[in-house]
Design the sequence.
């Protein structure tokens, strides 16, 4: 039993390391593409004059998430699962999610960095949901959580790729774990269900875009 668990853990670590290598390769390609694209834009401005690009701004208006009919259903293991489809469109406006923290749905094009990132301030749901789409587990807490638990969880997150952590005063429980389509509350940093949730949902089968980057996004 112990041997099988060690083999599973080793395989999971190897899989995450392979994802990290692929992510580094993507970042190198993206840097090259960005430099090339910048050169083309500059050349175009010199030849054709200044071009005014009209972009859609985030005006603070909220889009309804009604296109995702469904609800979170509690399971016997304490994990609630979204029953229904979760849309994955990129939107420029904010989204009125039906649950807090949200477990999926439309989101901004930019994701929050989730390579063990710990944020001390609240982060936008619309960016964190994009991180969930990439297979991240999002740890959130309120001011009711014990400082010792928050510190211990932060240390765990910092050591775990494809995770992120931030405060969220809008949630109903002091400490919550969220993955794409899945969520649960935990009692504290020593709750054994934390390791179980990480093991199952960090780059788990629920991930819409397995192996997608958790760096190169927003850092605050």
Sequence:
């Amino acid at each position: 039993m112990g041997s099988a668990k060690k083999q599973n853990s080793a395989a999971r670590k190897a899989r995450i390391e392979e994802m990290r290598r692929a992510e580094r390769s993507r970042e190198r390609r993206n840097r090259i593409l960005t430099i090339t694209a910048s050169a083309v834009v500059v050349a175009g401005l010199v030849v054709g004059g200044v071009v005014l690009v009209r972009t859609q701004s985030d005006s603070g208006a909220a889009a309804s998430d009604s296109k995702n009919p469904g609800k979170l259903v509690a399971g016997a293991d304490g994990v609630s699962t979204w029953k229904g489809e979760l849309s994955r469109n990129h939107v420029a406006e904010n989204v009125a999610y039906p649950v807090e923290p949200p477990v999926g749905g439309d989101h901004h094009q930019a994701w929050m960095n989730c390579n063990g990132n710990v944020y001390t301030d609240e982060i936008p749901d619309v960016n964190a949901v994009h991180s969930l789409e990439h297979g991240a587990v999002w740890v959130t807490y309120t001011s009711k959580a014990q400082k010792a638990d928050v510190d211990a969880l932060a240390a765990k997150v910092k050591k775990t790729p494809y995770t992120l952590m931030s405060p969220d005063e809008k949630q109903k429980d002091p400490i919550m774990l969220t993955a794409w389509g899945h969520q649960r509350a935990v009692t504290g940093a020593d709750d054994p269900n934390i390791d179980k949730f990480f093991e199952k949902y960090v780059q788990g089968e629920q991930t819409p875009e397995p192996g997608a980057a958790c760096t190169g996004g927003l850092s605050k």
About this structure: The chain has a mean pLDDT of 83.
